[in-house]
Amino acid sequence: MTDHSIKECQKSLDFVLGWFAKPIFIDGDYPESMKNNLSHLLPDFTEAEKKFIKGTADFFALSFGPTLSFQLLDPHMKFRQLESPSLRQLLSWIDLEYNHPQIFIVENGWFVSGTTKRDDAKYMYYLKKFVMETLKAIRLDGVDVIGYTAWSLMDGFEWHRGYSIRRGLFYVDFLSQDKKLLPKSSALFYQKLIEKNGFPPLPENQPLEGTFPCDFAWGIVDNYIQMD
């Protein structure tokens, strides 16, 4: 948390979100970090253009998930940033940075291996985490999130990674003739989530604190082959 690291993080967000969000939600002009680094590429807005641009969005449309080309970037273009599933932090930052706009999460998800079939526990874990972080941002941080959209409906061709990963709620057998769609575990979870409109206060959803009995046994198991 040095001043330099904070400035680099801000610059990263400026180049990704601020490029569009600052002109629309703040003052009609590009972020200073972009103007300082790309002054020869960015156009200059007139005062009339700034007034015309500002306030032209009904809500803040946020797409959040792994950038599949992230590993292909040159290191200096990453601004020392890492991929992170911390959606709540980003929602809070957008809320503070852009004057508390209404936020609609229009695309959100993660990915799993292309060998994963219908039992996609990892994807379901991320989906639950993202939705829970959205709820925390609303209830605990006061962020005005008005909607959530999971990405994506079905498995597909994922840019330079092709069919080596899957991101859909429905499994597609790409080798079959009819390409039949089959719901994954995550699709059934998401269906129940929508039916209940979130996580109702059921006993199984509540956090539990406490200690185990004094005679409770803890241990570690290991596998090895002993050769004589």
UniProtKB/TrEMBL annotation:
Please give the family membership noted in the entry: Belongs to the glycosyl hydrolase 1 family.
Output the PANTHER family linked to this UniProt entry.
GLYCOSYL HYDROLASE, KLOTHO
This protein's source sits in the domain of life called Eukaryota
Q: What is this protein called?
A: Klotho
Q: Which gene encodes it?
A: KL
